Amino acid sequence: MPNTRARRAGRPGPRRHTRRDLVVLGVLLGIPLLLDLALIWGPTLASIGLSFTTWDGIGDIRWAGLKNYDNLFTTYPQFWPAVRHNLLWLGFLGFLAAPFGLLLAVLIDRGVRFSRFYQSTLYMPVVLSLAVVGFIAQLILSRDQGALNAVIGGRNPTDWLGNPGLNIWMVLLAACWRHTGYVMILYLAGLKSVDPGLKEAAALDGASERQAFFRVVLPTLRPVNVIVGVITVIESLRAFDIVYAINKGRNGLELLSVLVTDNIIGEAGRIGFGSAIAVVLLLVSLGFIVTYLVQELRGEERR
Q: How many helices (H) and strands (E) does the chain have?
């Protein structure tokens, strides 16, 4: 008994934090928290509040209630085309660029010849900003001096970027060119981590390569699928620089992000109205985020 008590007495108790430890923890946690509040949540809450007012940035702030939202949904002609274009971005990147990136990743993972060259070439557009991609699109698709019309020839060159019925599709192709390489690298990393034993077991069970991929390999890529989905939504909703570089987001290239910029820092100076558009964009983003979190929580409960 005395020896047992002696051992218990000799054990160190829970370590108390000194004042210096508390100061270090406060600095390490407090500074990022303050920056997050000042740079993200502060402007977000300010935008929500300003969306119910009329303000030009100089004069008095006047309460407007839901007037900005009523004008936005009923009388603002650029709003619904911008919503439609953002949905087109989401559908184009989600149902064309992402599957094509997966296809390229599967082909490269199988060890085709010159796979390193293909991998580097397809990934190269990812290092370019969308603004640079927009300038490249102008060099290729310009009506009078573009490379595409020079190759096609003809007396009446096509205005690929000036025609509202064509320019959105040309811009989407340019955006897909960049997004495909990003998706390919993500899926390629996921395919490298798949256990080869799963493929061998599927082959022993008589599954074809197609069946083994869709029933064995693809389910194991669920974390990568989630990352690709999140990145695709982010790219679709924050698209701005490529259309602004081409024609300032007008004449068929309207996007919600461009409308926010035009109303807040443009000649109109309608900060309250631009904040209302920003709040709509925020609600759309939250819709995808909440859906993603609910699916993840349900998946954790099933596992």
A: 17, 2
Closest C-alpha to 258, from 89, 79, 133: 79
Phi, psi of 147 (to 5 degrees): -65, -35
pTM of the model: 0.81
CA distance 237 to 83: 10
Question: What are 41-86's pLDDT values in tens digits?
Answer: 888 898 899 999 988 878 788 898 899 999 999 999 999 999 999 9
Neighbours of 284 (CB within 10 A): 18
Is 174:133 a contact under the CB 8 Å cutoff?
A: yes
Q: Where are the beta strands (DSSP E) in the chain?
A: 53-54, 62-63
What does the pLDDT look like over 197-217, one tens digit per residue? 877 787 777 777 788 888 888
CA distance 91 to 99: 12
Rounded CA-CA distance 56/64 in Å is: 13
Please state whether 159 falls in left (phi above 0), alpha (psi between -120 and 50) or beta. beta
Distances (CA, A) of 62 to 30, 68, 123: 35, 12, 50
The owner of tokens 């595409």 is 148
How far apart are the C-alpha atoms of 132 and 63, rounded to whole Å?
Answer: 41
- Identify the CA nearest to 121 among candidates 198, 202, 47, 180: 180
Angle at 282 between CA 280 and CA 284, to 5 degrees: 70
Token pair for 206: 């008589």
Residue 79's pLDDT is 92
